[in-house]
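note to self: dont lose this again. the chain is below, predicted strucutre after it. 100 aa total, dont forget to put it in the shared folder this time
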Amino acid sequence: MNVEEILQYILKWGAEALGAALEQVLILVVMIEQGRIPWWGIPVVASALAYFIFPLDALPDPIFVDDAGVLAGAIAALGGAVTVAVRAEAERRVRKILGR
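---
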């Protein structure tokens, strides 16, 4: 591998990580917009979104692994409240934002 190939790989991996984290954020945003978050899930969602936005992370922000883990945990905690329609809308928005 030469330097260009390595940089392309890093950019591709970074874009995929960003897309995955963005999709998880948008799942929570769509649920907020649609009023689908149960009362007990409000602090879970607020905490996960705050962690994603907060600049001091366990890992630097270009590496979205910790952010994605926190967001995935919030989505898992919401369980059945996350519908197929919510996921589809979040995926549609990610494609629009990233130009896919």
